[in-house]
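User: I need a structural model of Radical SAM enzyme (TIGR03279 family) from Desulfofundulus luciae for a docking pre-check later this week. Nothing fancy, just the predicted C-alpha cells so I can convert them on my end. Input:
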Amino acid sequence: MTMMAAQGLVIERVAPGSIAAELGMEPGDRLVAVNGLPVEDILDYRFLTCEEELTLTLIKANGEEWLYDVEKDYDDDLGVDFAGGGLEPIRRCQNRCLFCFVDQMPRGLRPTLYIKDDDYRLSFTQGNFITLTNLRERDLERIIRLRLSPLYISVHTTSPALREKMLGHPRAGKIMEQLHRLARGGIEMHTQVVLCPGINDGVELERTVRDLVNLWPAVRSVAIVPVGLTRYREGLFPLRPFTREEAARVVEQVQTWQDHCLERCAHAVVFAGDEFYLLAERKVPPALRYDDFPQTENGVGLVRLFLDEWEKISRSLPRALPSPRRVTVATGVLAEGVLAPVAARLNEINNLAVELAVIPNRLFGPQVTVAGLVSGKDIVAALQCRNPGQTLILPAVMLRRPEQVFLDGMTVPELSSRLDRPVIVVDGPAELVEACLEREGSCPCQSR
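Assistant: Understood. Predicted C-alpha cells for Radical SAM enzyme (TIGR03279 family):
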C-alpha cells in the first residue's frame, strides 16, 4: 500500500451482491487506474473495464492505495456508481454566441438552466450539442480512439470569419478542419444550424449546407432551426425573428436540398425545424423525408410523428362516453394549428368536451411560442380565471423528466393545487386520447 495524489472517480454507490461489493469497495473510495492506465472519467472506466482480467487501483478514504485483482466475464459490470455520473467537472462553454439563449433568460429559474456546458462527453452520452471550440488535440485523439460516436455538433456556419463572429471565439473558424478530422476517424456526426435572419441565412446557409452534405456519410444529419429570442435582450447583439415569408423560403430551400440528397445518397440529410413549417403555415413533410428522425430532441420531426400517430388513433375513437366529461388541453402558441383539428375531432364524441387552451409566454415574451418553454406560472396566469374542466392535460415537453418540474421550478402537484384541478401529463396522441377519455390506468404522470 502506498500513497497517491487524489484523482480518478469517486465511488458514490456500490450495488449489493456486485463484484465491487464482494471485493469490499465502499462509497468514498476513489478509482484512479485500471490495468495501470489512468481513469479520467466514466468513458475511460467503460472502455478499460471491458477486459476479463483487471487490476483496479483505488485510494481509500484514509489515503491508502489498494490494488484489487478481478476476473470476470467480458460483459460483467463491477456494480459501482460514481459521483456526478463520472463526468465531473463538466466542461463549460467558452463562447460568447450572438444568439445564446442562456444570456436571454430571467433570474429565478431552475439553477441548472444557467449552466453553459460544451462537453464532448455529454454530446456522446446525452446528445448535447457542442461547438468544438474548446477541444484540444488530445481531446480529438481521445474521441477517435474511444470511438465516441455519434457526436452532436453546433456548426451554425462553415465560414471561418462568420463563425468566429457568431460564436465570439478565435478558434471557431477551424470547424471544417475539425469535422474533416472526425470524419476521417470514423466518427458520425449530427449537426445543427441556428439560423439568424440576415446573419447566416441566404448565401451563407447555402455554403454551410453544401460543406456539410459533402461530408456524408460521416455527417448524418443537418438540422436548421430558427433562433430563439426572448424579451430579455437588452445590451445584446440586435437580432430579430423570422417572418412568415422568410420561414417559407427556408422550407423551400430545405426541400430542394432534400431532393438532391435523396437522389444522391437515398437519405434526406437536411431538415428544417418544425417551427419553420408552423410559422410558414406549410405542411410538414411525410415521414420518409425525416430518415430515421435523428433530431427529434432538437424539434425536428415531432409534428410529423404526432400527426401520423393521431391519424391511426383517430380511426378507433368511441362515439360517446358513458357520462359527461370536460377537459382542457394546454399548449403553446405555435402548436395551436396542430392541436385545433385534434380537439375538434374529440369534441365529436358525445359527452366529451375538449377545450384547447393556448398559453401565451409571459416568462420569455410573446416571441417565444413553443410549448417546451411555457412555465408553470404562465399556465396559472392563463387559466386561473377560467374553468379548466374536470382535468387539465399538459404535454410532457413542458416539464423536465423524471422530476416533472417546469422551467420556473413549479411542480405538477403545485400546479394542480393552484388550479384546484387534477393535472395529467401526456406524451403523444395515444396518451392524450386516454387522458381525455379517462380510461383506467392510462396516464402514469398525473397529480390528483
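Before docking, keep this in mind: The longest helix spans residues 244-265.
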